C-alpha cells in the first residue's frame, strides 16, 4: 500500500465528505471508487459509490418512469436488492435525510417518480443506486488508519451529480492538487509500467 500522508494523522470522515480509494486497494468492490459519506457516527457509516454504473439502466428496474433513460449506479456491495437515491431538490427535502445543506438522501418515492415523469426533476439533480456501502462500528476508522481511503471535504455538487463516472476518481484527486494530482495518474496495474 502506498503512503499518501507525511504524518500519522488520521482524518475522520464526516457526512458529505468523499472517500477516494487508494489506487491499489485490493477489494474489487472499491477499486478506484469515490464514495459520498451519507452517515457516519458511533454506530457505523453508510455511503454510496458515485462512479460505478450498473449493468442495467434505471428504466430496466423501475417500470413507473415513463421511458426515462438514466444511469443506475452500484452504491456498494451491501443489500444490492434495495434502491436508493441522492438528490439536490429543495422540493423533496422535507421527506429526505440531509447529507449536506444541498445534498439529500431518499425521500417520497411517489413524488420523485411524478417529478421525474413531468420533467420537474432532471438527471443532473438525482442519482439512483442499487445497494450501498456500509461499515460497522469502528470499521471505517480502522480502514482510515490503514490508509485505504483519502478524504475530500466539501465537494462541489458537480462531483456528485454531473461529472462522468468513468473519470470521477481522477477528477477528484486532480482537484485536491499536490501529491493527489500525481496519484491520479498512477496506472491501474503498476506491473505494466
SS field, number of helical segments:
6
Please give the radius of gyration in angstroms.
17 Å
- The 3D shape can be described as globular
* CATH-level-2 architecture of one domain: 3-Layer(aba) Sandwich
Q: Any idea what the CATH superfamily of one domain is called?
A: VC0467-like
Q: Could you give the count of β-strands?
A: 10
Give the strand content: 25-35%
> Oligomerization state of this entry?
single chain
Q: Helix and strand succession?
A: EEEEHEEEEHEHEHHH
Which stretches are low in confidence, meaning pLDDT under 50 for 5 or more residues running?
1-7
Helix and strand composition category? alpha+beta
- Could you estimate the helical fraction of the residues in percent? 10-25%
* Largest sheet entry: 10 strands, mixed
Task: Just give the CATH class of one domain.
Answer: Alpha Beta
Mean pLDDT across all amino acids: 88
Separation of the first and last Cα atoms: 17 Å
Amino acid at each position: 500500500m502506498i503512503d499518501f500522508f507525511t504524518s500519522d494523522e488520521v482524518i475522520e470522515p464526516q457526512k458529505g465528505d468523499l472517500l477516494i480509494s487508494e489506487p491499489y486497494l485490493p477489494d474489487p468492490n472499491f477499486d478506484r471508487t469515490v464514495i459520498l459519506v451519507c452517515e457516519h457516527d458511533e454506530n457505523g457509516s453508510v455511503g454510496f459509490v458515485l462512479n460505478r454504473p450498473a449493468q442495467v439502466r434505471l428504466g430496466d428496474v423501475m417500470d413507473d418512469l415513463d421511458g426515462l433513460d438514466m444511469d443506475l449506479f452500484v452504491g456498494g456491495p451491501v443489500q444490492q436488492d434495495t434502491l436508493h437515491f441522492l438528490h439536490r431538490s429543495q422540493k423533496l427535502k422535507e421527506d429526505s435525510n440531509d447529507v449536506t445543506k444541498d445534498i439529500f438522501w431518499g425521500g417520497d418515492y411517489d413524488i420523485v417518480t411524478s417529478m421525474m415523469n413531468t420533467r420537474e426533476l432532471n438527471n443532473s439533480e438525482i442519482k439512483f443506486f442499487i445497494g450501498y456501502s456500509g461499515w460497522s462500528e469502528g470499521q471505517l476508522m480502522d480502514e482510515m488508519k490503514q490508509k485505504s481511503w483519502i478524504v475530500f471535504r466539501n465537494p462541489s455538487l458537480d462531483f456528485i451529480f454531473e461529472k462522468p463516472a468513468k473519470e470521477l476518481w481522477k477528477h477528484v484527486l486532480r482537484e485536491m492538487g499536490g501529491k493527489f494530482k500525481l496519484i491520479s495518474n498512477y496506472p491501474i496495474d503498476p506491473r505494466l509500467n
